[in-house]
Amino acid sequence: MNRTGVVILSVAGFLNVSVPLGHAEPGPEAPLREVFPGVRVDLKERLVEFDGVVPVNAHTKANLKVFLETTVCAFDSKEHESLVVTKSKPSQVHAALLLIGLKPGKPGAWKQDEQKKWVGIPPEGEELDVRFVLKDADGKEREVDPAEWIVNIKDGRSLRAIAPDAKWVFAGSKLVSKEPPPRAPGEGVVPPAPAGGAAPPPAPQAREHYLADTEGTLIGLTSFGTETIGLTAMYNPDSDKKAPEWIAGKQTPEIGAKVVVRVRAKKAGS
Hints:
This protein has a domain at about 50-180 and about 205-265. It is globular and about 75 Å long. It is mainly beta. The relative contact order is 0.22. It has helices at about 5-15, 90-100, 160, 210-215, and strands at about 35, 40, 45-55, 70-75, 80-85, 105, 110, 120, 125, 125-135, 140-145, 150, 170, 175-180, 205-210, 215-220, 230, 245-250, 260-265.
């Protein structure tokens, strides 16, 4: 098996996912290859992209505001507060980032200081370049910075203008253990050993799962501490600690618009 195949198998084992090996080796005629449904990689360019749509309406007649907590979320999670939603799993995007040679760090976190104020600990990981790709009416592609779609409700300035040094990093979310729920009443309870010394049936075992898959936190904005791709500028998602401040700007396309999310390994010096 070639080196790419070995890497893919190790990725699949780490995240308990299945990768189609036949799609992994890029060719000159089609550098982007699909490794999961809707998730594509270009190993040479160290690029990952996946499909999504705009789930929110930032253009209502009543000029209603769409408050944001994440930039890109997984399906059936935070669609009401994200710029883009995708059916691709965060763990699949994580695996694709591993395939292009990136190493995850760790998500951001919050702690209280001596004055009982909440202090953000930024996420760590290799730096990424994140872009949204749209197609014009003539089919021509254009890339946009998602931080330009995210604006502050107080003054209308973009996230990019307010936090120009903020970076996207491969945080990697977390693997956590979760006890399997009983499948039927009484199931999951270990019965006493039967007479005669025979061993009782084994109890269900806890399994690890990728936290961003259950919480939908694929590309962050505020920091829940579970993001696959985190933002180094720390904003608290808890409205009791920090009033919501980020909304979808008017640059956001109409609801339902198709968006490709393109993630590149950041080149040194860029």
